[in-house]
Amino acid sequence: MPQVTPLRRLAVSVSAACAVVIAASGAGPGAAYAGTADALTAVTPLDALPTLAPPPVRDEDQVSGDHLTVTVRHAGARADGTFEVYCHPDGGSHPDPAGACDALDRDARWGRDVFAPVPDDGVCTMRYGGPATAHVTGRWAGRPVDAVYDRSDGCEIERWDRLVPLLPDLRPVGR
Fold first, then answer.
1. Across the strands, what pairs with 2?
2. What is the mean pLDDT of residues 40-59?
3. Cα dist. 95→26, 67, 91 in Å?
């Protein structure tokens, strides 16, 4: 089922209100083209119109579209764990949700997947960054996310470091 956005709800409410005004005026939708001045100037008093209320807010309207679950392993006792991140507005159980969202926003570009894996034909240094792994799942910018991170070579280390502080900062001190 497609997600109903508040903007779509507003458009439906405005359309319904216009239909009620036209129906209440008795002129009908084609009266404006009839060429009579009465049809063009007919106005129904507001107290004669039925009261329109906005549609109720549903749970899916309240949930941010940007929600990620980050699971980090083998990065050290202070960094290991599973964290929730909500963006726009920022929140969740992540130690730095605002910084995590900023890192994602900073790396977001039109037509480019923030969570894309390292290309298979890439040339990477044979530098080992440690046993840390991360698994990121959820939704970002309306798209599903299921990305795995490690620090097995220079390309994977750079990919990890681009998302700090969404992922823990494991760079050596002084870099």
1. none
2. 60
3. 60, 15, 10
* DSSP characters over 102-128: HHHHHH-BTTB-TTPPPPTT-------
Amino acid symbol at 24? A
| Number of neighbouring beta carbons within 10 Å of residue 74 | 13
Q: Are 118 and 155 in contact (CB under 8 A)?
A: yes
What the block records as the tokens of 137 is 């799942």
Helix segments in 50-167, DSSP class H: 59-62, 97-107, 154-162
- What's the token pair of residue 100? 């995590």
How distant is the alpha carbon of residue 116 from its chain centre? 17
The torsion angles phi and psi of 12, rounded to 5 degrees, stand at: -65, -40
Residue type for position 150: D
Q: In this predicted model, what pLDDT tens digit does every residue of 64-97 receive, in sequence order?
A: 579 999 999 999 988 999 999 999 899 999 999 9
Strand partners, 39: none
For residue range 125-158, what is the model confidence (pLDDT) as tens digits? 999 999 999 999 999 988 899 999 999 999 999 9
